[in-house]
Design goal:
Layout lengths: L1 E3 L3 H11 L5 H19 L5 E8 L2 E8 L4 E7 L3 H10 L4 E9 L6 E7 L7 E5 L2 E2 L3 H11 L5 E9 L1 H10 L4 E7 L2 E2 L5 E2 L5 H6 L3
Parallel strand pairs: 1-10, 4-5, 4-7, 7-9, 8-9, 9-10
Antiparallel strand pairs: 2-3, 5-6, 11-12
Helix pairs in contact: 1-2, 2-3
The protein binds 1-O-pyrophosphono-5-O-phosphono-alpha-D-ribofuranose.
Length: about 210
Amino acid sequence: MIYELSNPVTKTLITYLREQKSDAIRFRHTVAELTKQLVYEALQKFPLKQKTITSWQGESSFSTLDEENIIVVTVLRAGMPMLDSVMELLPNVTAGFLAMKRDEITHKSVLYYDRLPNCVGKTILLVDPMLATGGSMIDALELIKSRKPSKIITLNIIGSPEGLEAVQSAHPDVAIYIAQIDEKLNDDKFIVPGLGDAGDRSYNTL
Ligand code: PRP
């Protein structure tokens, strides 16, 4: 399942990301805002549980997401602003980290560090702003699946049709929520029109 956001606010924020003059702080802030939009869509049909809290009228039970059963897994480094954003929204979710780097010659992703909490029976939100060839997502999903979660949802900001198709055919059971599907990949496997390299744009390593 691939779900692309269509709100005019989403399109406006994507255009800010494409603008070369958007500096690192603006870039990370915009990625974070788009992430919140993705979370709202992705969790729209999520079951709520009842929680007893002390309100101004005393103890009562109210609806809430079961945050303890959600793990947000980020792909470093471009995924960091997305992880921060999910945890600002839902402060009781657990965080997991995968460090992956795309080899500039082979365009293949290489995992060089992972720190995942116990994923058994949990819902995983895998966050990475870019889905280019889809190689990083495919490998990340394979690793996460080996840890036996009950459900995996990916949140991506921008992707190529080729990459999305590759991820869907490798992992048809995963729901992909994406803010913008662009035209294509170029010969260097960059998304076109795209926004450049999200890691570099976020952390001033251009
Ligand atoms: C980018 C991006 C994804 C990957 C997407 O990371 O954040 O992880 O490339 O490419 P793919 O779909 O072809 O695998 P990058 O390797 O640039 O690392 P960075 O986050 O450290 O900048």
